[in-house]
Amino acid sequence: MNSQETDEMSNTRAAALEPPVIMTATPDYELAIACQSGDRLAFQRLVKQYQEKVRGLVYSILSDPDTLDDVVQDIFIKVYSSIRHFEHRSNLGTWIYRIAVNHCRDEIRKRRIRRFFSLEKMELDPINPELKTDSAVIAGERTKLVQWGLSRLPEKHRTIIILRDFDDLSYEEIAQVLNLELGTVKSRLNRARLALKDILAPYWSPADHEEDDSL
User: Fold this and answer.
1) pTM score > 0.70 for this model?
2) Which of 49, 71, 101, 154 is a good FRET partner for 110, with 20 to 30 A between their CA atoms?
3) What is the mean pLDDT of the chain?
4) What does the alpha-carbon distance between residue 142 and residue 127 come to, in Å, rounded to a whole number?
């Protein structure tokens, strides 16, 4: 064995004995570690940090204000009982979203209902551009209309639009939440947006289409 080979083997052994490189801890990472250690105050901080986001997601999928608090509570009970299994392969928020989406899907299957938004039976007339004088009224009309349009979509299309266009998750995060390939996320989102456009077309003025290219 020559001296070069000896040096290479020594370097390999030295590298094997070195401690693993630890990435800089993020606040969410530290929060998750504290929760996994049984710190109840840390879990209370987790709930406070993510509760409103989870509430918004649950309502967007189920649109049932009467059971909203109970569903959100059940989700955080699942988070609490599962946090010890969180392996930090995704960020904490993405992991919580995955639990919330899966729980909502379980709720949908149990209830066996086809429509989940309270606006689904609402009769709509085409928006009259001449009546658009107040920006707050316009924004309210659009929000109401989009909610109604989302209620017409299949759950898988509705959920992916909510995660991307309302909650601003990245494609990679959505793939983790929904357990999909990245290419599937992009193609499904494109189909969902096109379907929503078709639904809203009779009620959406040309000016709205120009201003909002995300729909």
Assistant:
1) no
2) 49
3) 79
4) 10
CA distance 177 to 98: 4
pLDDT 10s digits, 95-115 = 999 999 999 998 888 775 444
d(CA 136, CA 173): 32
Rounded to whole angstroms, how far apart are CA atoms 38 and 172? 30
Q: How far apart (Å, rounded) are the C-alpha atoms in residues 194 and 40?
A: 45
Q: Is residue 153 within 8 Å of 195, Cβ to Cβ?
A: yes
Query: Domains in the chain and their CATH numbers?
Result: 20-111 (1.10.1740.10), 129-211 (1.10.10.10)
> Are 42 and 66 in contact, with CB atoms under 8 Å apart?
no
Q: Count Cβ atoms below 10 Å from residue 26 Cβ, excluding itself.
A: 12
